[in-house]
Amino acid sequence: MMSLIGPVRRAAPVASRIVAALFGGYALAALGSVAALALPMSKPQAVLTGMLASFAIYAAAVVWVFAARSALRAWAGLLAAAAPLLLAAWSVW
Amino acid sequence: MKTDNVKREREQRPAGRGIRQSMSGLHIWAGLLMGWILYAMFLTGTVSYFKDELSQWMRPELAHQAELPDPALVAQRVADELGAIAPGSPQWSMRLPDGRTNSVYAFWRTAGAEGGRRAFGEAAFDPATGGKVTARETLGGDFFYRFHFQFHYMPVLWGRWIAGAAAMFMLVAIVSGVITHKKIFIDFFTFRGGKGQRSWLDAHNALSVFGLPFHAMITYTGLVTLMALYMPWGERTAITTPAERQQLSAELNAFIQPGKPSGQAAPLASVADMVRQAQERWGQDAVGRVTATNSGDSTARVAVARGEAGRVSMSPQYMLFDGPTGRLLETREGVGAAAETRGVLYALHLGRFSDTVTRWLYFLVSLMGTAMVGTGLVMWTVKRRQKLADPEQPHIGFRIVERLNIASIAGLSVAMTAFLWGNRLLPAGLAERGAWEIHLFFAVWALTLAHAVLRPARTAWIEQLWAAAALLALLPVLNAVTTDRPLWHSVTEADWVFAGMDLMCLSLAALHAVLALRTARHRPKPRTVPAKGRGGVIGGALEEGRS
Q: Which stretches are transmembrane (chain A) (predicted)?
């Protein structure tokens, strides 16, 4: 049992970051693409703006997740970025 | 910030492990995991800049086109033919020939197609007669083009998602790679040849930094080409009615959608006249595509769209005509700012606007991008080989990467050339001939993987590189034997598609021969770094910074 805990404890933060990068990053990018609908422009243009920008958000999120000092901070950063986007997205839902 | 909670101490960076080390780890792993797919996407994408030329070469029966036929007349001929083979088609669309094509590609929806019936048809037409071309059945350069973003032997949507994931990894690898380099400018001018790992690193840096704007552009724009698939959430939220959907679609492409047919027959007015009106507006060779809906019905519409020549944008610009009367209904020449941005990014990726010089630049820089991915993959093994506990018995992870590298780099060259050999050698009457060319490609690729697994790694590299060099060098010979368009003939006839293809094969053969020779001559230096214990594959590599 003890022999298992060591590797798990070591791998957990990395695994957590990988999940944060892959799925947290996508979720943030998707949220950003919806939040773009709150921009003062016509619907088709806002939709396209959101799509165009989403990949930059995704890439930035992934870089952040692995640059952050700890896995917990990585997640916290994603949530902090999501908050204003969620607010904007909420307004157009 | 630095006095953070102690309980998270264990996952904090060790002293001296800064952002460059984390980014280096991210760069290495993002690059490695998708590296093989990215290499194949890069190389097939690179050759796709000459997709039309490749298609011409693969249909040698179609004569070299010395001068461009009148687009208006060609459009009329093919429209007449489409009316005959697809009567009552709800929608057909043709791409008019330009200097790079000698046939007209068209597709059509089949009238009244329901359930089990195939709802689409497609064919290449002869611009001179309007009839379907009678060349060997082949997908031509379109195989590499389609493989580049949707692979093969799987539903296209799966393929596109895999390609999207790979592109996203690429984007992350580019950003993290740039952050890793503190001396990005100086590194570019540094090359330490003959120094093993250093040389690979320098080559990787030079290839990456020189082409950096292109690599970043091509990766991002690649994602943009399929962005509606990858990020549909805004569209799903905002676009809910058919009218809105139509509005969005009109911002993206010139494929007009059919309305409800009246059932009242009415022949199509002169398509040639419509094309001429568009030519007057945009220029003689500026018409790209003609699309008709409900042709033969009183509700028919014809859209004559502007091509990509002379403008760096894929945004729809078209003149819409009433089918039966030929009256101009509408001219669309602008889209919204975001749609135009998307149109420009899309056009930058495809590079169809290019003249010959720009096209070659695209090809060469893209080839450097391919080499960037290739050197990155090789470096992973070069760097780790010195640290192996026992170089005679490397661990399984190392062996997998090493063997996959051989098959996906050298093996792909062999397989792609074998595809071209198949085009010349498979009998014309073979059923599903076009599909067999593709099966041959994958069969040869699988064989190179088997070969890479069975032979010692260094020998496998050398043998496969020589195999690619030989196949490439002999392709002009095969072409001379199996067609009436050998190199001496195409040069004297100024047939630059065929001459260029032969010369390109010889250049690439030389490139592979040089690589094979260099690999054969390379003598790995005796190990100087003492072997270190390693804590798991991922943990170990994340801890190890850029050395």
A: 46-67, 74-92
Task: Supply the pLDDT for residue B546.
Answer: 34
Q: In this predicted structure, what is the pLDDT of residue B530?
A: 45
Q: In this complex, is the C-beta atom of B171 within 8 Å of any C-beta atom belonging to chain A?
A: yes
- Residue B217 sits at the chain A interface (C-beta within 8 Å): no
Q: Which of residues 316-345 of B touch A (CB under 8 A)?
A: 336-339, 341-342, 345
ipTM: 0.94
Closest chain B residue to A60, measured at CA: B172
Instruction: Give the best residue of B11, B230, B335 to mutate against chain A (max A CB count within 10 A).
Output: B11
Strand, helix or coil for residue A14: helix
- Residue A91: CB atoms within 10 Å: 10
Query: Do the Cβ atoms of A34 and B237 come within 8 Å?
Result: yes
Q: Which of B1, B10, B13, B172 to mutate to test the interface with A (most CBs of A within 10 A)?
A: B172
Distance CA(B9)–CA(B25), nearest Å, equals 20
B245 touches chain A (CB under 8 A): no
Q: Are the Cβ atoms of B234 and A63 closer than 8 angstroms?
A: no
Q: Is B193 exposed, middle or buried (0-12, 13-18, 19+ CB in 10 A)?
A: exposed
Q: For residues B424 and B430, give the distance between their C-alpha atoms in angstroms, rounded to a whole number.
A: 13
Q: What is the 8-class DSSP label of residue B544?
A: S
DSSP line for B433-502: HHHHHHHHHHHHHHHHHHHHHHS-HHHHHHHHHHHHHHHHHHHHHHHHHHSS--HHHHHHTT-HHHHHHH
How far apart (Å, rounded) are the C-alpha atoms in residues B289 and B274? Answer: 12
The pLDDT tens digits of the residues spanning B114-166 come to 544 558 888 889 888 888 888 888 999 999 999 999 999 999 999 999 999 99
Give the tens place of pLDDT for each residue, A24-45. 999 999 999 999 999 999 999 9
Residue type, B342: R
Q: Which of A29, A67, A93 sits opposite B22 (nearest CB)?
A: A67
Q: State chain B's mean pLDDT as an integer.
A: 87
Interface check for A92 against chain B (CB to CB < 8 A): the answer is: yes
Residue A21, domain extent: 2-92
Is the CB of residue B136 less than 8 Å from the CB of residue B433?
Answer: yes
**Beta strand extents in B68-150 (DSSP E only):** 91-95, 104-109, 120-125
Mention every residue, 6+ apart, whose C-beta is less than 8 A from residue B180. B20, B23, B24, B27, B546
Structure tokens at B543: 């801890």
